[in-house]
Amino acid sequence: MPPITPQAVQELLDDLQRNREARKRAWLVLQNIRARLEHWQGDELPKAGLRSFDAEGATLLVIIDKLFAEREAALKNLADAIRRFQATIFESEKESDRAGAHQAVLNALDVAEALIIAPGHGSKRQDRSL
Fold first, then answer.
1. pTM for the whole thing?
2. DSSP secondary structure string, the chain?
3. What's the rounded Cα separation, in Å, for the pair 34 and 40?
4. Which are the contacts of 71, defined by CB distance < 8 A and separation ≥ 6?
5. Given a cut of 70, is residue 15 above it in pLDDT?
6. How does pLDDT run across 61-118, given as a tens digit for each residue?
7. Residue 25 to residue 107: CA distance in whole angstroms
8. What angle do CA 111, 114, 116 make, to 5 degrees?
9. Nearest alpha carbon to residue 103 among 122, 84, 123
10. How many CB atoms lie under 10 A from the CB of residue 111?
11. Cα dist. 65→5, 59, 91 in Å?
């Protein structure tokens, strides 16, 4: 084994410093993602038990999955409600369901709107009841 030179030690110390700086930057990126998710969620997210990339990433993935699932459900409900209302217009046998279908569209719009409005700003919806 060759002798360890002061230059080799310095190179290792420089690598270690670059690695620390890279980890700090990566942690800051995760915390920026956390802050955005908290804004979209409208609430503080649970903290990971351990301060580790794996734990923080797992926590953020759970929240991302939840947010996407909520939005997907809202879009599906809105599309279903619009199709139900559309059927009352084009299918005479479903005309009696028009008021209920219209209310379902308004309710689905409220849910979808709540997912896109910044927290604390309330709904844009005026009273659109029948």
1. 0.67
2. -PPPPHHHHHHHHHHHHHHHHHHHHHHHHHHHHHHHHHHHHTSPPPPPSS-SHHHHHHHHHHHHHHHHHHHHHHHHHHHHHHHHHHHHHH-GGGGGGHHHHHHHHHHHHHHHHHHHSPTTS---------
3. 10
4. 115
5. yes
6. 998 998 899 999 999 999 999 999 999 998 989 999 999 999 999 999 999 988 876 5
7. 43
8. 120
9. 84
10. 16
11. 51, 10, 38
- Helical packing angle, 98-116 and 53-90, nearest 10°: 150
Q: How far apart are CA 66 and CA 38, in angstroms?
A: 12
Task: Output the six-digit token pair for 51.
Answer: 């301060």
Q: Do the Cβ atoms of 59 and 48 come closer than 8 Å?
A: yes
